Structure formats: structure tokens, C-alpha cells
Amino acid sequence: MHTRTDQRAYDIVEPYPPAMVESLRAVGYDLPMAVADLVDNSITAGARSLNVIFHWDGDASMIAIVDDGAGMTEERLIDAMRVGSSDPTEVRDKHDLGRFGLGLKTASFSQCRRVTVHTKSSRKKIATRCWDLDYVKQTKQWRILRTGTTQSDHFKLEIGTSGTVVIWEKLDRVVRDAQVDNPRHHDLFNERAALVEQHLGMVFHRFMSGIRSIKFCINGRPIKPWDPFLQNHEATQHPDSQSLSIGPDRVQVDCFILPHHSKLTPKEHADVAGPNGWLAHQGFYVYRNRRLLVPGDWLGLGVRKEEHYKLARIRVDLSNTMDDLWEIDVKKNTARVPVSIRKDLANLGRVTRERAVAVYRHRGKVISKGHGPKDSFVWEQRVRHGKISYHLNREHPLVNRVLERSGAERSATIALLRLIEESIPVPLIVLTSAEKPDQGSTPFEYTPSSEIYSVMTELFLALVASGLNKEEALRKLRSMEPFDRFPEYVQNLPATLEAKGAQ
């Protein structure tokens, strides 16, 4: 039996507009995140070109996001400007980067008090709507203006056959009280533009390359994508790739080990470090429809970010049907691992970290005796009473030869070796390596070839003196540090020795 609801049984309590809009401003966006949220809408609209414009005019400065996407009809624009324009539980198009129907409004309100949208769909005239928070506060109603300001109308010229322009004015969170003729204020505005550029290059890097790439610009200048996995570098390792099931959906996971800094040029090392540096950008990278949500984190899997893990980066690809499972928020900058795959991701993370540590240590030549013949390495690592120390390998052919030839000075030679071992500035080395990893010199860097041959000759003669023939000594030399880095020198050594009459 159908029962009619008694209207006296409830009250309708509508949000108070002045208070509501101020609350929406406090969602927690910073400027780069807010711009990225608007870019999501442009990509969903099929844009092939985007331009973020930072227009300086003191406290009257403006920011505009221009795209050449499909645009909107006037009816669609009104709906898009509505606070809560879509139900986050509804099934969305698989390419849609939005979710809550709040991004345009909350992202804009977080940075400015007036947002104007001009949009044009194919064969339609330009439609305009404007939220002015001061006007809402004055009227105490959800009134959306049908016209923009004279300044915002200027950006209509940016629209071609179709497209959308979002203009932010009254940038109280960006340029409050800024003076147009103050160089410091202008520099600060430019610095914020640079942060936005860097953030977009990181978050949307996968949209900036490939066959269907999108052109991203800031003030008309192309934005450079940041590939956190350095996939085109020959020394990057891609040891594992797995597809994990979550109900009817699948999560694609790809593990990468970045090259040791000795394999990178200074520019490559600086670029791949990322906006926040090597230490911050290790761990899992969570993508939703190729859009980066989490730029490096161990996702609460019981691991802290450590210096020796910094080469480990793991890509996780989600579809937009998994938002609830991963607890994606309105800002799209956090994600939580579902219980059903926590163990799988933890195992992948552990294995990737172990491989990254091996590259971090062994490519840097801090190698323990278990990783090759004991006489191949000058230094060996020892652990005693839980403490790590480093010692000259007494079985190294050249060290052994020096000791055997020291004769009456043997005790002084041993004392010198012990003094060297006990005086290694390990804390300084670790600190310098962490703070300036690209400034450490490699073995024999900038050393004249004559000096390299001189040291190599002594080690060669020590190998021969140990009982190896010359061919065996050369083969051994090729695998010993640091001459494993100089195969051409080893190859030319016999001719050099012959020229000097040393053979």
C-alpha cells in the first residue's frame, strides 16, 4: 500500500550560501593542485592543447586555463557550475578524470573569489557564467552571474572552433595586497607559476607523450614532461610487471630500478630527482586513468623513506571504477591500498627495494666480499657487535705485495693501513652522498692516463707475482675494481708495458 509522506514530518534545511562558499574554500588545495583539477576537466573534454596563462597586474592579476576541447552548451555550463553537479557513485565514462562534481568550484574557490567560464561547443555561440563569492555573500543566494568582467571577457578571444576558458580573478589566496610595481611581488607570482608548471609536468607527463599526446603550455611556452621512471635510459631496470585482481577489476603494477648516479649525467640526475628530490620521490606512484595521484610513497605498508631506497619506483595503474576501494579524495592526491592486495604490493615493494639497494651499493662500489672473488675488491665491509666498519682487503694482490715488500718497515706499513681504516670519514661521506649525490667523483676521474697506467701496472705485476701468467693476470685485471671501468686501458696495457720495457 502506498503511503503519502506527511510534509509536516520534516523540514527542508538548505545550506546558507555565504557560509557554504567560505567552507568550500577550505578543502585544502594548493595552487598547483587547483590548476591540475581544472586541467582534468579539459582532458575529459577531449582537449588536444592547453595553455595556462598567468597575467600579472598586482592584486588584480588573473590566471586562466584555456583549452580547445569540445566545450559546453549553455545548459551544460549551468549544470557544470552547480555545486555538486554529479553523483560520485554513478558509473562514469572510463576516460573521465573527475568524480565528485566539485572540482571546478572547489579548486577555483580555493584560490580566488571570482571564477568566470567562457565556453563554446561546435556550431554554438559562446556561453558565459560567473561565480562571484562577494556577490553571493551580499545577496545570500546561490546566484550565478550570466556575464563576466571586462577583463575576463578579453579571454573569449582565445576560443577557436570550440573550447573552454576558466578565468580566476580576485586572487586573494595568491596575490593578496600585491603591488604591480613591486619586483618582489612580481617575482613571487612568477615563482608560483613555475611551481604550477613543474606540477603539471609531473601529474600529466603520460598525456604529454605518445601518439595521442596533448600539448601543455604555460604562458604559451611548452611544459616539459617529467618521467619518474626514466624508461628510455639504458641503465634503468624494469624487473617486474604484475596484474593484480580486485574483484572484477585489475591493477597493473610495474617496478623500476633507476640507474646509480654514476650512470647519469649531472642534468639527468637533477631532472629525474623530481620536484621534491630523490628521497621524497621513492616508492609507489599511483595513477588513475594515467593521471598521477601519488608521486612516490610507501602507502602505509610499514616502510619509511630511506636514502638507500631512493632508486626504487613502482607504477600502479587504476581505473576510475576503483575510487571507493582506494579512497580517492576530492583533491585527487591521496590513495589507500585495499586490504585485498596489501600483501601483494608489500611483497613487490620489498623485492624492488632489495634490488634498488643492490644497485645503490654495488654500482657505487661499496661491495661486500660475498659479491665476487675476495681478492677483487680493495675494501671489505665487516660487522662486529652490530657495528659496520670498512677495512683494506689484505688479500688484494697489490696490498699483499706491498706488505710482503715492506721488510723492516712492515710494522710501520701495517700501522699506516690501520690508521687509514680507522680514519675513514664515514659520517661525512654518507652526509655528502645524500645531500650532493651528483658531486661525488668517480674512480680516476680527471686523472691523466699516465697515472692510471702506473697504478694498473703495479697491480698487474702483483698478479703475475702471485702466480698468474700474463693472460690470466689481464683477465683478472678486467674484473677488478676500479679497472673494470677501464676495459680499453686493460686492453692497451701490454703495449704500454712493452714500450716501457716492463715485460
Keywords, separated by commas or semicolons:
16 helices, 7-stranded mixed sheet, Ribosomal Protein S5, domain 2, 18% strand, alpha+beta, 4 domains, 5-stranded mixed sheet, 503 residues, Heat Shock Protein 90
Give an overview in words:
- Helix content is 35%, strand content 18%.
- The protein is an alpha+beta fold.
- The chain folds into 4 domains: 17-222, 2-Layer Sandwich (Heat Shock Protein 90), CATH 3.30.565; 237-362, Ribosomal Protein S5, domain 2 (2-Layer Sandwich), CATH 3.30.230; 372-440, no CATH class; 442-503.
- The protein has a 7-stranded mixed sheet with strand order 4-3-5-2-1-6-7. The protein has a 5-stranded mixed sheet with strand order 8-9-12-10-11, with helices on one face.
- A hairpin with a 6-residue loop joins strand 3 (114-120) and strand 4 (127-132).
Q: Give me the Rg, rounded.
A: 31 Å
The class by helix and strand makeup works out as: alpha+beta
Give the averaged pLDDT, no decimals. 87
- Strand runs, count: 14
| Major β-sheet annotation | 7 strands, mixed
CATH topology-level fold name of the largest domain: Heat Shock Protein 90
Task: Give the % helix.
Answer: 25-40%
Low-confidence spans: pLDDT under 50, at least 5 residues?
Answer: 364-371
CATH class descriptor of the largest domain = Alpha Beta
Strand order of the largest sheet: 4-3-5-2-1-6-7
Count up the domains: 4
What amount of the residues lies in strands?
A: 15-25%
Q: H/E element string?
A: HHEEHHEEHHEHEEEEHEEEHHEEHHHHHH
CATH superfamily of the largest domain: Histidine kinase-like ATPase, C-terminal domain
Based on Cα principal axes, name the global outline: elongated
Helix count, per DSSP?
16
**Distance between termini?**
110 Å
